[in-house]
Every structure is written in structure tokens, then in C-alpha cells.
Amino acid sequence: MACNSKYDILGSSHNLLLNKYCVVPYHLLITTASYEQQGEPLTEKDFSAVLDTTNNMSRQHIVFYNSGEESGASQPHKHLQLLPMPEHLDIPPLLGRWLDDNPLPGTMHTAKSLPFANFGVWLGTGPPTPSTLLAAYCSALKALTDRYGQNASYNMILVANTLVLFPRHHSRWHGIGVNSLGYSGLFLCKSNEEMALIENVGVLSILTSVGFPVTLLQKS
After folding, report:
1. What DSSP character marks residue 113?
2. How far apart are CA 171 and CA 39, in angstroms?
3. Distance CA 50, CA 63 (A)
4. Residue 214 to residues 83, 205, 208, 209, 211: CA-CA distances in angstroms?
5. pTM confidence score
6. SS3 content of the chain, % helix, strand, coil (to 5)
7. Which of 28, 95, 175, 183 counts the highest number of beta carbons within 10 A?
8. Where would I find the beta strands (DSSP E) of the chain?
9. Backbone angles phi, psi at 77, to 5 degrees
10. CA–CA separation, 179 and 171 (whole Å)
């Protein structure tokens, strides 16, 4: 497939594209067919487009959404992104750590084992549907906006039956852009110096710096 190719498999509401500036092969974009602003809340049609895409794939994907000025979003047209799961992983490292906190199925949960604020829902073992994903998203978003305000920036990570939102305070750390993939534990380093800096400081510390400490939730 060639980058920026358009596929009419998502009905009339969405387009499926390969990222024109893809760094990782098969980095996909799901965009709304008519213009909507990036940062608008996700809808059942958005999640339907996600499942229409992922249900046709044999390989697990990380689905993510950057919302707000501090989220690391780079384009104004509403879009979700899909990235193939690295072959050596079954689930992104930080999402696995979130699940280790043993959330109850279908219930909004904050993992206190993570140092930064998080609001998520594990849907259980059954296959997700657009309506169950929307309900999980709305539950997590309400908890986040109740705490940080209606205009709060956030990142969303969705893998299989797990959806988690992370509120954002800054979009960059020492000049390094951080979007949703950072909260899955994946960073794009443009140089050996950047990689060494991240390894020295630690991913968890960086994500707490660009997000909000979970201790603030415990004190509220």
C-alpha cells in the first residue's frame, strides 16, 4: 500500500488513509469524511469506523486519539490513528501495567500504581462494540473533565478491550514531542542523544511531567 492512499471501506462517515509521513510502516489514519475539528469528543460512528478497520486485521493495533492543544496533536482535521503492535509485545507496556491494577469490567478505574493521572475502562473478555466503546470513553472522559475541566487536553489509548485517557499539561518535554504513543510506553527518538536523555530520566517521570501526578487525584 502506498502512503496517503484512500480506501472506501468505512462507509460514508469516515476515510481510511495510510499516513503520508509514516515513520512506522502501515501507520493508519481514520478521518471524518466531512470536516470536524480535532479535539471534538469521539462518537459512536468514530468507534464503528475503528472496529470496521481492526476487525479486518489479523494483527493487534494500538488505536490512539490526541485531543487538545497540549495533547501532541499536529493536524486540525479530526482523526484517530492506528499503529501495528510491535511484534515483541502483546500489549503496550504501560497499558499492561494499568491492567495489572485489576480494574473491574465496565467500571471507570484509575490505576494508582501509575505515577500520572489516568482514567480508563476495561470492557471485559467479550468483543467490543461501538456502543460499549462509546460508553467506556464517555465514562472516562467525564471523570477526566470533572477533575481537569471541559477544555482539558488528553490522550486516548485503545487496545482490544481496554480504553484509557491521560490528561495533558504540556505537549513537549525538553523539545521532544509527546503524544498518545508516549502513554503506551513508546517514544520516537530522532537521535541517540534523545534516546540517552529519555533513558536517563525515565519514561514514567517524563509522562508525569507532561501529564499530571496521580497523587493530586488521591488528595482531591
Report:
1. T
2. 14
3. 8
4. 27, 12, 8, 11, 9
5. 0.90
6. 30, 25, 45
7. 183
8. 6-7, 14-18, 28-32, 61-67, 79-84, 119-122, 153-159, 162-168, 172-173, 176-177
9. -80, 130
10. 7
